[in-house]
Amino acid sequence: MDLREQACWLLLVFESGLSLRIVNAIVALWCKQGGRKLEDFFAADPHEWIATCHLKTDIVQKLERAKEKLPSQSFLAEQLEHDQVRLITVLDDEYPALLKAALDINRIPPLLFALGDLEILKRTTIAIIGSRNATEESLEFTSAVAQFLAAQGANVISGNARGVDRSAYEGATGVDGYTTVVLPHGIRKLSRAQMRVLRPKIETGKVLLLSQFHPDAPWLVSRAMERNMVVTGLAQIVIVAEADSKGGTWEGAHGALKQRRPLYVREAGSAEILPGNKLLLEKGARALPWPAEDVTRTFMPLLHVSASERAKQMQASPPSYQPSLFIQ
Predict the structure, then answer these.
(1) Is the pTM of this model over 0.85?
(2) What is the overall mean pLDDT for the chain?
(3) Comparing C-alpha atoms, which of 289, 223, 272, 255 is closest to residue 99?
(4) CA 177 to CA 201: how far, in whole Å?
(5) Structure confidence by residue, pLDDT tens digits, 283-295
(6) Do residues 211 and 113 lie in contact, with contact meaning Cβ atoms separated by under 8 Å?
(7) Helices in 44-174 by DSSP H: which ranges?
(8) CA-CA distance, 8 to 67, in Å (whole number)?
């Protein structure tokens, strides 16, 4: 995809002010069904937009105003190319099929920004989620399970927050393993100090950075919640280290269940009180006892289940990407 087309994707997704549902429907109708580029879309007459994509007047007006920002989006596309950041559209072969299958047209990110080797996502992939303010026991559990899984060649996914996310990343990279970091903000919002640490691991093909947000988007609670759906959607199974009975991890765990991901939850010792973990176990999540007498015996089934899920996914038909019948 050339820079002009990339700029048009940036324009539609981030500068139009349209919802994900409408953006995805335009992409499906114009690009997927019509076989045309977004560059052609923005060069077309608004009457053709209406005829092809069934757009209402207010949507057309937003798109016409957005066209004025095309030069700035072209400059952004050039900067991203210079920084080796790849734009992966929902129509590209490289777009993770597992994520596309997990989310409907109202929620699927039409663009992903990637820095690193996308082949990492083809490995057995396991997400670890948990509280930003996790207990020491939960952090020890996270580090141990991430180390074990990464040492066996699995791709450990986390969400780039303090607490459990940080322990998962450090556990995986500590054994020179593979890990995917799904950012709750734009890919250009990482500090220079953070990039100095990440860059060598990215260049050796062990760390993949992903973001669904505008490259310069700051952290927001709402973005962290949206990010959670991608973390769990990219994984074959999901592990909860520590959850409260509400908040981001709780919502992420429920999202994983809706995505039909096998959910594993750390089972606390008698001295610990982890209300969210207990409730998730009562809802049917599978228990991972900790401390574990035998780490291999406790964690090895995770790899077997994940590999089995991965085999099913590889045999399944590619997910469809169909537009909504009506754009309202």
Answers:
(1) yes
(2) 93
(3) 255
(4) 10
(5) 999 999 999 989 9
(6) yes
(7) 46-53, 57-66, 70-82, 97-102, 136-151, 164-174
(8) 9
